[in-house]
Design a protein that fits this description.
By secondary structure, this protein is mainly alpha-helical. The protein has two domains: 39 residues, no CATH class; 30 residues. The chain contains four helices and no strands. The chain is elongated and about 60 Å long. The relative contact order is 0.05.
Length: 76
């Protein structure tokens, strides 16, 4: 369910939003920015979503494998 919210912002910011985002897309843009800060996401679902991102997983694996050699170079 959606709720209507009235927010007061500077005119220059408003015009920037209309120009860059578009007049019919401002609400969605603001919601997408605010949501991660106010709605806790289910951790299991978040990890599942991250794991499904094959490019991200590939880059993470490459980074992890690249750091393994660093440990063998350290003196004990």
């Amino acid at each position: 369910m959606q709720k209507k919210l009235t927010v007061t912002i500077d005119e220059e910011v408003y015009e920037g939003l209309r120009t860059v985002i578009g007049p019919r897309k401002i609400s969605r843009f603001i919601e997408d920015l605010v949501r991660p800060h106010v709605v806790k996401k289910d951790m299991y679902a978040a990890y599942k979503e991250m794991a499904a991102d094959q490019i991200r997983e590939s880059e993470a694996l490459e980074w992890a494998e690249g750091t393994i050699g660093d440990l063998s170079d350290e003196k004990r």
